[in-house]
Amino acid sequence: MQSSTEPPRLINYMKILIIGTGQVGFFLCERLSLEGHEVTLIDRDGESLKRAEDRLNVLGIEGNGASAEVLEQAGIKETDIFIAVTDLDEVNILACLLAREYQVKTLVARVKSIEFSGRRAVLSKEKLGIDLLINPEDAVAEEIIKIAHRSGTFDVAEFVEGQIQFLGYRITAENPLCNLTLRELGALRGIYRFVVTAISRDGKTIIPRGDDVIQEGDRIFIVVHQNDLPAIQYMLEQKEEKKNRRRRAFILGGGHIGLHVAAGLEKLGFDVRLIDRDEKRCEKLSASLRRTLVIHAEGTDVRTLCEEGINDADFFIAVTENDESNILCSLLARQHGVRRTLTLVNQPELLNLAPSLGIDACVSPRLAAASAILKYVRRGDIISLAAIEGSNAEVLELEVKADSQVINTPLRNLHFPAGAIIGAIVHDRTYEIPTGESRLQAGDRVVIFAMPEALAKVETFFARA
Amino acid sequence: MKIIDLLDPAAISADLQASTKAEVLGELTDALMRVEPSLDRDEVVAILQEREQLGSTGIGDGVAIPHGKLRKLDKLLISFGRSRGGIDFDSMDGRPAQLFFLLVAPEESVGVHLKTLARISKLLKNSAVRQALLDAEDAESIYGIIARQEESL
């Protein structure tokens, strides 16, 4: 359906073809059409197609995405980006191979069960000629490992080759930042250099100003340079976190994700305990994990969990296939003293509910895969992009082009769009936290937090003179 | 919490003798111990050095605010020191540091610690305040300057 008010047109306007209206497809459609790209959706199921057409500004075509005829009808010849995210690996790969024949520039496929990375993989994206193969389970496992690694955070994204980190912190009454004003944090910048780009409170996300106070229960999103992170972590570290002790993580669910997370945390030096209810699977897991202690038990078996030391554990990571048991077992573990809970949630409705229950971080394979794809397909001036869970806001990285209109003018004299904030400016070798006096130079990389409505304005801001 | 309520005049050293970063941390700890003799000097210096290793607390313009967290402490402790010659403190602007505030906070009240750090940073951002502290005759007049200037923060 064509709406009467056209969304603002992007500088790097693209024609995008998406196959599959599952959760990932729908999410990508929503984001990319909101940003003003021309999105066409193909699905075999007319009903889910209609649902997407009704709610989003996209054109839907009913049919098989792996058929040349349907692809031509959807305008494959003019397509810049082709994204195949149906539930079937074979369809996604075949559709991409077809699209390749039409010289589509960028090809993305979701692949769940075909091995395409690692030593045992027979197929690879190079062999297939597909630019990005994304496995949602791997994407979410990587995200969990990252969050556990950066203790205390619930949301993590990296920019400028990892130099700039975007981190979300949940503010408890004991958190040192609790009750501090943004102005006080500004005064601390000589010692602790970071920017609070946003605060989520009572379901609303705001970009804070000087008089705003960080309160208990807030989720704050900060931008920080990796060199400044150790000092900040030292400051934020709470009393009970003893140093020089191996961090302990319990993982519930020994499926693909559980195994991936266990292996990743082992490498990071965690003391890992993996719980699964299936005895056969436990034996398999024991064989493939060297240092992890595999426990055959139910996630609700409190006595066993206590015996294995849940009360002194740093993380409880619930990654079974069942959202409800993930949430319940996380709450149970929390009650028995685990410091942080990380919970896998598939259903979008539950994803928004879980934080209010006291779960520290919810991760979703859908969101993880979708943000990985978004990050990849965003071309042009945007180098990198991460979606912020539960807020629709995004963090993006831009490179200032030589012909940009903003070059060499102090920021205070430019009208930076409302609803967005610059978190960091990276020059060639140095970086700065922006002030009114900051001037952007060609080649600078800029990390920006933006509410959805400000995204297109941010791009216009950096446009050519 | 105001700086002046936390800073005992006896913990001000108007003429630091130290010439290195390690020495000045020790000398500022000594100033602290004039007020709080029960402190373990080695322990305090060790936590300060540990913090410095994560990134210098030399904030530029000749100012450094070394700080750390200590277990079994019942309140935030502050000392002040001034070095006439200046000491290399690995500051961001590369300049030697002359004005030092040392803070040691109980582990469980890092929040108060940060608020005080913010107040001190703000106070010393003012170049007139820095100059007055550098020109002050002795510890007593340094204390007077801090008290007066904090009023107008």
CATH architecture of chain B: 3-Layer(aba) Sandwich
Low-confidence stretches of chain A are 1-10
Instruction: Report strand order across the widest sheet of chain A.
Output: 3-2-1-4-5-6
- Please report which band the strand proportion of chain B falls in: under 5%, 5-15%, 15-25%, 25-35%, 35-45% or over 45%: 15-25%
* Secondary structure: helix percent of chain B: 40-55%
Chain pair forming the biggest interface: A-B, 21 and 22 residues
User: What is the CATH class name of chain B?
Assistant: Alpha Beta
Keywords (chain B): Transferase
GO cellular component, one term (chain B): cytoplasm
Protein name (chain B): PTS fructose transporter subunit IIA
Subcellular location (chain B): Cytoplasm
Question: How would you briefly describe this protein structure?
Answer:
The complex is a heterodimer of chains A (465) and B (153). Helices cover 30% and strands 24% of the residues of chain A.
Question: Would you kindly provide a written description of the structure presented here, covering whatever features stand out?
Answer:
The complex is a heterodimer of chains A (465) and B (153). Chain A has 465 residues and is an alpha/beta fold. Chain A is 30% helix and 24% strand. Chain A has helices spanning 23-34, 46-55, 68-73, 89-101, 125-128, 136-149, 182-187, 229-236, 256-267, 279-288, 302-307, 323-335, 348-353, 365-377, 455-461; strands at residues 15-19, 38-43, 59-62, 81-84, 106-110, 132-134, 153-159, 164-170, 195-201, 204-206, 219-225, 248-252, 271-276, 293-296, 315-318, 340-344, 361-363, 382-387, 394-399, 420-426, 431-432, 445-450. A 6-stranded parallel beta sheet of chain A has the order 3-2-1-4-5-6, with helices on both faces. In chain A, strands 14-13-12-15-16-17 form a 6-stranded parallel beta sheet, sandwiched between helices. In chain A, strand 9 (195-201) and strand 10 form a beta hairpin. In chain A, helix 1 (23-34) packs across helix 14 (365-377) and helix 6 packs parallel to helix 9 (256-267). Chain A is globular and about 65 Å long. The two termini of chain A are 34 Å apart. Chain B is an alpha/beta fold. Chain B has one domain: Mannitol-specific EII, Chain A (3-Layer(aba) Sandwich), CATH 3.40.930. Chain B is 46% helix and 24% strand. Chain B is built from 6 helices and 6 strands. Chain B has helices at residues 3-6, 21-35, 41-53, 110-125, 127-135, 139-151; strands spanning 7-13, 58-60, 63-64, 67-70, 77-87, 97-106. In chain B, a hairpin with a 2-residue loop joins strand 2 (58-60) and strand 3 (63-64). The longest helix of chain B is centred in the last third of the chain and has 16 residues, at 110-125. Chain B is globular, with a radius of gyration of 14 Å. The model of chain B has no long low-confidence stretch (mean pLDDT 94). The chains are: A alpha/beta (465), B alpha/beta (153). The A-B interface holds A 174-180, 184-185, 187-191, 227-228, 230-231, 234-235, 239 and B 51, 54-55, 57, 59-60, 63, 65, 92, 107-108, 110-111, 113-115, 117-119, 121-122, 125.
